[in-house]
Amino acid sequence: MNYFKIANRNVKRQKRRSNMLAISIAFGTLIIILLQSLTTGFVENTQKTITTAMGGHIYISGDELLESGKIVPKVSDIDILQGAISNVVPTLIKDYQKRSVVSGSLIFHGKTASRASVVGVDWNHESTLRNDLNIIEGSLSEIEDPQSIVVNQDVFEELGAGIGDKIIFNFQTVTGQENVEEYTIIAVSESKMSFGISSSYVSISGLNQALGLEEDEFQTLNIELYNGNNIDKVQNTIESSIEELGGTLPLPVSEEDNMMSSFGMGMFATDVNQEWTGTRFTVTNLNDFLDIVIQVINVINFVSFVIFLIMILITMLGLVNTFRLIMNERILEIGTMRAMGMQKKDVQKLLNLEGILVAVRGVIYGIVAELVISRIISLFTFSEIRNPAMQLLLKNGHISFPIEILYTLFVAALVMGISLFAVSQPVRNALKKSVADELR
Amino acid sequence: MKIKKMITIIALVCIISSSLMAITVNEATNILKEIDEYSNFEGKSFSSTISLISEDPEEGIDKTVVYQFRDDDNDKFLMLIKEPSIKKGQGYLKIEDNLWFYDPESRKFSHTSLSEQFNDSDANNSDFTASSLLADYKVTEVSEEMLGSYETYVLNLEALNNEVTYPNQKVWVSVTGSLILKKEEFSKSNKLMRSSYYLNYIKLGNNLIPTKTIFKDELVEGKKTTITLSNVSTNDIPDSIFTKSYVERVNN
Fold first, then answer.
1. pLDDT tens-digit readout, B150-187
2. Fold classified for B22-250
């Protein structure tokens, strides 16, 4: 017997009822997939923004202790660092970038953008950043000129400057001396959050000279991995290798200092008790910056999981009730089928198949609706919202909804399983009756 | 021939008279020592009330009143902000090489440095400590110049280490009294960053302290801060003032 054909015909026969059932399943599926896709997009975009802004997954910075007791942020024990990196399995590391960073005031005709962060970049090496900057005005053709600067949109608008204008950057050298550099604006990049400060970019060689660093020195080395899951493994290898090679790492931070440092207060807390020669290396990673974001995402995930459960429950209850009504309506039909010689299990198989067909239809509707709605939402631009946390979650000013095929299949299977479970109970109850009762 | 002789004589007179009037680099170094001694309160404390009026073309005019306490013997100072009310209780505490900023709102101390601006004004934290020109700079050039109606020595100074705020300075010092009347401070790239004008001084024993100073930002036109000292005193200040616990509880 062709169960599928009969089941399909039965489903089609009750178009309105089948569609209503499918729509209720579709709604549940839609909400579940949409929320998951949204939170996945938030996490991916945050990771991407931070990885781009920081130039990788693992960040190694250096400090040197001067005779006067002053701590200077720079890496000059390059041999130790290179030795430590060479101890990492080469297939794990995709690339690494050397950068120098300084905060100061950008000034243009009396207008000041204070607390501006300027990042020195080796443009010959950093092709990823060049591609990810999202230039909205000007071009990067003269980016390797030491006097060229790519300013971010916020600074550009605050200063009221134009492409080709010369701006002054006032900052302090690594030893605390006042310094001033003049740069020409060659391009404007879309503002992206970089830990509360939007960054502008210049050539590292010029910035190093202005900061009082040697040409081959730098302040941070950022390592990009092929797979973000290897962050802890690579970080541990680098830290242990630095120690083996005679380098210095910071003293372990106490719980209290750790709390202070999370508010930006305790960065010198451990220095009081530590003396060292050469470079003291501090190794941090993407997850240290993602902690707060991940906490927010976890809350969203928890809320979406609760919504998921509620939706599943509602869908299941709806299906159970609807199928109970359907079974009552079709009791005569069931009795006729059994009177014509169909076994209980055959009837059950047929009715279950009808339930699955409705569920499949619902899941397909849900997935299609999710794709349509997510595409429509992602068309809206939120670039006007200058909230740094919001910009961190967006992809070029848009909410993104990455498609997770495995998760979608899992949800589809789960919804169909639940539909089958919801259908089987009323069917079983209907089949408990005798044929005579069913035909009465 | 006669004209040639005249010119030679005039030139010789000028050279001789100028060499008689000008001072040597060594003598100029002694002036730095004198300036440092005037500002250093050895063996006594110093306290005052400071009024800072900051004028910014973008931000407008902002007035801050600060209580200043100094113990130069032990390299300590405390600056407690009294006004405006929104910043009341914020403080800068320096003990030897450490300078902390205290924020009563978060109840946290954070490290800062002498080269940072004081409370977003055009004054630096180092402007409120004893002068250390002799230890930090060497005189590279000396000349004489009239500054208004004052005869001054103009000293070009170059930093002896790379940790001072300004690598180069040009200082106008009065010929009589060795008082700084004007200062120009230059960045590492030799750009003029700040001009300071010392308008009034007060004598406290052997010390001479500027009571009115104008710091003019040379990078942002129209931006300046006027500092006025009042209630100056050399009365003893208890050691307990220069502690974190005092800064924390002073508002309560």
1. 999 999 999 998 888 999 999 999 998 889 999 999 99
2. outer membrane lipoprotein receptor (LolB), chain A (2.50.20)
